[in-house]
Design a protein that fits this description.
Blueprint: H1 2-17, E1 28-29, E2 35-36, H2 38-47, H3 54-62, H4 66-69
Antiparallel strand pairs: 1-2
């Protein structure tokens, strides 16, 4: 659930800002008022990409993050 909310916030940010680069301190507010520490979420996903399942990696790759589609050596 937390991952899905992070992806939802990320998609919202990308749609609004037109870029996939997120500052580490950025916090995104979802329509329901939930605050997502988006910069931290993204940084954590990249650091842990070898532990993400295929569906999670695909969701991030679909948003434009090439590192999510690559297998970490």
């Amino acid at each position: 659930m937390a991952f899905q909310r992070g992806v939802e916030a990320l998609a919202q940010y990308i749609a609004r800002e037109g870029k996939i680069v997120v500052g580490r301190a950025h916090v995104e507010e979802l329509p329901d008022g939930t605050m997502i520490k988006l910069g931290v979420f993204l940084s954590n996903q990249k650091a842990r990409r070898d532990r993400l399942d295929a569906q999670q990696r695909a969701a991030l790759a679909e948003l434009g993050y090439a590192w999510a589609a690559e297998a970490k050596a």
